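BACKBONE GEOMETRY TOKENS:
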Amino acid sequence: MPLRPAIDSSAAWRALHAHRTSFAGTTLNDLFAADPARGERCHATAAGIYLDYSKNHFTDTTLSLLEELAAVAELPEHIVALFAGAPVNRSEQRAALHPALRGAAPDAAIGREIEQSRTRMLALAQALRAGEIRGATGQVITDLVHLGIGGSDLGPRLVVSAFAERRAPSPRVHFVTSLDNTALAAVLAHCVPATTLFVLASKSFSTLETLSNADLARRWLGAAGIAADHIGRHFAAITSKPERAKAWGIADDRILTLGEGIGGRYSLWSAMGLPIAVALGPDIFTELLAGANAMDQHFRTASLRTNLPILHGLLSVWQINFWHHGTRAVLPYVHGLRHLPDYLQQLMMESLGKRVAQDGRELTIQTGAIIWGSEETNGQHSFHQLLLQGTQTVPADFIATAIPHCDAEPHRQLYANCLAQSRALMVGQDRATLEKELLAAGHSGAEAAFLASHREVPGDRPSNTLVLAAHAPACLGALLALYEHSVYVQSVIWGINAFDQWGVELGKQAASAIGAALVGADASAYDSSTRALMARWNSAGARSD
């Protein structure tokens, strides 16, 4: 795709700015009063997901203007380019092939490569589940410890925890990410060296946290008496650099590969999904892919007014750039989805945290939002106070299931709370009504005014509600693909690259250099704060430890 002028210089962008002023004094309550059927009308459904987007500040005119903006940004052409395997990751000259992992391969050669990789991964998973993989002493592997971080951890961890009740009793699957060795020690306290397999999940096979934990694991195995030339039987690897894994000591038949076109945060659909297939079985992994593929096809073919990822992405741009909402809460009312906010935090913030356009020009508009959230109703007893009565507006995505995923009565209560919170954010509680109620309850005029000022909830705060047909692998796959494509839509509008992460790379390089300075390398070039903190580390005796 050729590069285009900055989107904020377009007539469509200026028209949206002018249109934004028309909302002065108009609340969500006003929009619903003017259109009593707004809730029934402003929704879209696909791949087992119902998106209610009615509780956002928009009119049909807004959607038309956003549609014009999408046309100026050539969104339809960029969608074609994504699925065609074009190098949409311009800074690294790579395609973004995560949709191909779900069945939308751009050509037969890529399709064959993906199928071969998936077949090898599922075969290894099935062999582990069947007790056919044995360690150095000939005993069956009973524990799989997945060593990864970021995209090599968050996706598999989310899916495995989402369907914990369907996990196989053996091998048990554990996840370790932290560089703090106490995290690995806590897991290994429940494992036996002779029956433990470590999976090193690192696309580059150079990730500090993963390789540090791998070295600890190797020492743990050696201390248990496993001979050095047999320790390799207790390791497997998932990487795009198989030669590095082999040099580390992992056998060819234990190395699973993924292509350079598979970004870490988009990799759970690849061989990186090994823990999913081991813990939950190949069928569940396949169902997950099928749900994501269904959303892929919807994204490719549905019109803007019915397209879930496009609606979610364009309304996010509308909120970020024209309403200046710099944060979004993700609130799943499903215990199994408690890790979803963590997963989306990386997906959205790593993809959209960019300050230059595809051609390197510095942007003059905001990109991305801070993503956070937690399992509900836990959040209602902690941070919802800020959502409801705080001084800043935080758009929210509420997520629930239609079919009960737990006992009927708890599910009813969860669904009721989900709807109640989204309605409370929108409707609020006005001071005048509160004063009347307090006066009727016997309070004096002064008391009623004072208490009403504290109890008032402003309302007029936007949200989406996403209802999954069921808490099922296919629906989760569709939900994750929806968010992936929403991210892509936003990146196309802003003209940024959603598939690189050079800021992350800088942090890695800086940590390596400072680590060397802590053990004697020249630190004179560092600022006084960093030097003082280095001195603090040395004076505390950490160096000798």
Observations:
- DSSP finds 22 helices and eleven strands in the chain.
